Amino acid sequence: MKANIQNNRQMKAPARKTQTSWWLPAGLVLISIIPIIFGAIRLNQLISGAEITPDNARFFASPSPVVIHIISSAIYALLGAFQFASRLWTRGNKWHRWVGRFLVPLGLAVGLSGLWMTLFYDYPEGASRLLYGLRLFFGSGMVLSIIIGFISIRQRNVNQHQAWMTRAYAIGMGQATQVLTGLIGALTLGEVNEFENALLMGAGWVINLAVVEWIIRRRPTRQARTA
Fold it and tell me: Which of 29, 121, 161, 190 is most buried (most C-beta within 10 Å)?
């Protein structure tokens, strides 16, 4: 009798763990809202024909890259959040696989459009070269992470696939964290200069990757399962 009760408790334990996993995608969706709103405002300016200023002239001169970046970033952030819900990638559930096939080109569109804007848009006068370098570094890192993650799952290496795709998502979510680092900078430093702004922007990416690396290294190593 006691053995049956113990077995029943062990069977129920994973279910409770799966239930709590929904808090992660819900939190990721929540912090995505602010950058998505900013992106929607930018799209509205391009569509409605807002006043052209030195800060936005490059977007009006070549709107396609920024439109691709805004739309792909929003979908990537929202759909990608649900890839962390363990219930959706359990055996027999095809959600993770099919959505993942959609997110790979979408994530590449985010990273490559960001790199294109950094390389080919007119660089704002007085802008920090540090921010220019950070955008190239992390944009390239996102693209490379997605490619490695895709190759890993083709090789049936699930652990490596999860690690690299999580890193790519962390970089893609840099805009959300940069809202927080920018707010902290404004409250503590007041009006920041271009160099300080670049440091705050870089901190957003570094914080995300630091948290992700901590999670990856705490995750118990298990044998890769067949995809």
Answer: 161
Per-residue pLDDT of 150-193, as tens digits, reads: 999 999 998 999 999 999 999 999 999 999 999 999 999 888 99
Cα 93 to Cα 41: distance, rounded to the nearest angstrom: 37
Report whether 104 contacts 146 (CB < 8 A). yes
In whole angstroms, what is the distance from residue 84 CA to residue 56 CA?
Answer: 35
Q: What is the rounded CA–CA span in Å between residue 160 and residue 164?
A: 6
- In the chain, % helix, strand, coil (3-state, to 5) comes to 80, 0, 20
User: Can you say how many angstroms the Cα of residue 211 is from the centroid of all Cα atoms in its chain?
Assistant: 13
C-alpha closest to that of 141 among 166, 124, 176: 166
